[in-house]
């Protein structure tokens, strides 16, 4: 592993894919799963404080960031298995870990908790819904439909990555300044790399498989504590509603002065809220 800016960066081949990850701190494992169009870097403001109490593991998911972009395997059950094998590779296989998932990291975290229940002590999710659980509001979003089309989005967005991605960072925010130029540079670097756009769009193309898997998982409700957060300027109550459909103990909150990018728009709030939730769940 290589230390950069106080964080250790490493990579590991797990479940047939090479994953890049960041790890920091000591203590019980806390796994942070990012969404689109971001990478592990969305957690940069919160990792230092969380690492004072936990061993924080923040991977780049399959096909995203500096991880490998395979042809297939983007259903969230498979992506969750990637993460689980990485956690075991890092020596935390027998530990009761805590999971946090944002955007596509939310259904990934849910798939992890649903498949490997004995290994997860607490689950926090933010700013997404679960495909297949209710009438799918997220599926009605224009970009969900667009990204699901095979090959066309890559052809139209290639060479215009900064213009395209910047629209989401701006329009999805309560505070558009929260994702600054340095963050945009990092995200655009990753999504402009060979396979970067395709890897991101494949998460949307797995929607039908995700919906089927989620309906199957929901037959057996989660019993670990769940925290569900939605930004007042974005998904609002939706994460709370969907988690109440699949879990027995949900603590939900609509976050004031936040849009889709809660860890970047309100990092101090995020650290305090997640830390108190995990302490109460211990």
Helices and strands in order:
Layout: E1 2-4, E2 7-14, E3 17-24, E4 29-33, H1 47-50, E5 55-59, H2 76-89, E6 97-102, H3 105-115, E7 120-126, H4 137-140, H5 142-148, H6 152-157, H7 161-171, H8 181-192, H9 196-205, H10 207-217, E8 226-231, H11 238-244, E9 250-255, H12 262-265, H13 267-281
Parallel strand pairs: 4-5, 4-6, 6-7, 7-8, 8-9
Antiparallel strand pairs: 1-2, 2-3, 3-5
Task: Summarize the structure in words.
With 282 residues, the chain is an alpha/beta fold. Helices cover 41% and strands 19% of the residues. It contains 13 helices and nine strands. It has a nine-stranded mixed β-sheet with strand order 1-2-3-5-4-6-7-8-9, sandwiched between helices. Strand 2 and strand 3 form a beta hairpin.
Any descriptors?
9 strands, 13 helices, 9-stranded mixed β-sheet, about 280 residues, alpha/beta
What would you say about this model in short?
By secondary structure, this protein is an alpha/beta fold. The chain contains 13 helices and nine strands.
């Amino acid at each position: 592993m290589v230390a950069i800016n106080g964080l250790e960066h490493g990579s590991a081949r797990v479940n047939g894919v090479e994953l890049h990850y960041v790890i920091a701190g000591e203590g019980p494992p806390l796994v942070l799963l990012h969404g689109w169009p971001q990478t592990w870097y969305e957690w940069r403001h919160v990792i230092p404080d969380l690492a004072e109490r936990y061993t924080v593991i923040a991977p780049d998911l399959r096909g995203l960031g500096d991880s490998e972009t395979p042809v297939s395997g983007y259903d969230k059950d498979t992506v969750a298995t990637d993460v689980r094998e990485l956690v075991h590779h890092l020596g935390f296989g027998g530990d009761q870990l805590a999971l946090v998932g944002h955007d596509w990291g939310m259904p990934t975290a849910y798939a992890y908790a649903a498949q490997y229940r004995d290994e997860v002590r607490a689950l926090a999710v933010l700013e997404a819904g679960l495909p297949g659980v209710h009438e799918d509001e997220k599926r009605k979003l224009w970009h969900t439909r667009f990204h699901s089309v095979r090959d066309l989005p890559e052809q139209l967005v290639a060479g215009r990555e900064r213009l395209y991605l910047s629209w989401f960072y701006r329009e999805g925010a309560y505070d558009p300044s929260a994702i600054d130029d340095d963050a945009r540079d990092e995200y655009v670097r990753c999504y402009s790399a060979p396979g970067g756009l395709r890897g991101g769009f494949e998460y949307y193309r797995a929607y039908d498989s995700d919906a089927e898997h989620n309906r199957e998982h929901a037959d057996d409700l989660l019993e670990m504590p769940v925290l569900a957060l939605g930004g007042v300027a974005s998904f609002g109550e939706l994460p709370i509603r969907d988690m109440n459909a699949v879990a027995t103990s949900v603590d939900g909150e609509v976050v004031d002065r936040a849009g889709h990018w809660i860890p970047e728009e309100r990092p101090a709030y995020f650290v305090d809220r997640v830390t108190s939730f995990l302490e109460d769940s211990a």
